[in-house]
Amino acid sequence: MIKVCKFGGTSMANGINMERIAGIIGQDSSRKFIVVSAPGKRFGGDSKITDLLYETQKEVEQSGTVGKAFEKVAARFERIVDELHLAFDIGSVLRETAAAIEREKSPDFTASRGEYLAARIMAELLGVPFLEAGDVIFFRGGRLDAQRTYEALGAAMKACGRAVIPGFYGSDETGAVRTFSRGGSDITGAVAARAVGADLYENWTDVSGFLACDPRIVPSPVGIRELSYRELRELSYMGANVMHSESIFPVREADIPIQIKNTFRPEDEGTAILPTVPLSSRTVTGIAGREHFSVIYLEKSLMNEEIGFAGKVLRILADHAISFEHMPSGIDTMSFVIDSDFLKDGVWETLKREITEAVRPDRIDLISDIALIAVVGHGMTRSVGTSARLFAAIANAGVNVRMIDQGSSELNIIVGVDNRNYARTVCAVYDEFFRSDAPVPLS
Ligand code: ASP
């Protein structure tokens, strides 16, 4: 049995937490490979090491040398080594790191040093080899070079038997360090699990798994014990940010289950993410949502007969590097739901002009301040009347639905409402599907 265990920033935040990790690893001899994040916040208002490193990068760009921000980074790591009573010469590693940051002058290299230093210390603490991610995780064209990585990383992991691997980074075609997007150590963990053919990918964080909805909106929502990969992908893409939404792909290819666990409450069961889940009695597995979307709305008589209409609009969006989230359409109407950030600084005006020239619509409007709420669950396919319950609950809350999109998979229904109605809608949907279902809390 081989488990790959990834520990997040809070779990790595200080020496005491790292001791906890050592305890967790010591309890189970199948926990052979450990992937770590950089130390995160220790308390509200504290800084994440990765954020301090991005500040360090700015300092290097401005003055050519590391400055105050790196001093904070160094102090954090020195303190961790002290707290752990390790005979590890962190001082010289930090000096080499500062020199390398000044030499490389690369944002990705600088940002990656949090994971690098954290993994070096964790390897010392556990007495387990450190496996340098830059030597075994490869990017090509800005993306993970999966095949090459699985081969090199898998071989290196098997040769070590046990290892600590820094999360978040690898190297590109030129040998330079490249990072994944923020929160990317989750991806490293998944890649490592896939590369070594692990039986389980344990993702240790500071919560006891996924909750049925955002606890900032509904106090103490029920926990989700089991999720399918596809449900996870839908929920995490829409804002349930327990795990990076892209970390699903490597493990999904090999049907490796993921277990989300809480470093601070290891006895809690957490959430299991599985290739398929037995259809539970629950219709809806979870609710997630995000605010600040815009909808480009187009109307044109006989649009249905105009071949290539959507294609022309999509071409324009692609030319502006704008990705769209949903495209609900009618016979003579078409809408494109887009993250509002894409439309700032005059971009909307340009798009409006280009779309008008390209497809001559009868009407083109921008509807702003839309929140999207995803109601997710495999159970929805089986139960007649889910939509009726959903929309009745939203109507009873006095909320007007601005947009509906149900993927043909029937795994989710996406509802668009005005931003100001976001929380109210989430509460209404939660009450409808969870309060009446006699839920079992996680812990
Ligand atoms: N330390 C990186 C971040 O803060 C990566 C990670 O923690 O997964 O985004």
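^ aspartic acid complex. Residues 9, 37-38, 48, 50, 114, 167-168, 182-186 surround aspartic acid (CB under 6 Å). The CA atoms of residues 143 and 356 lie 35 Å apart.
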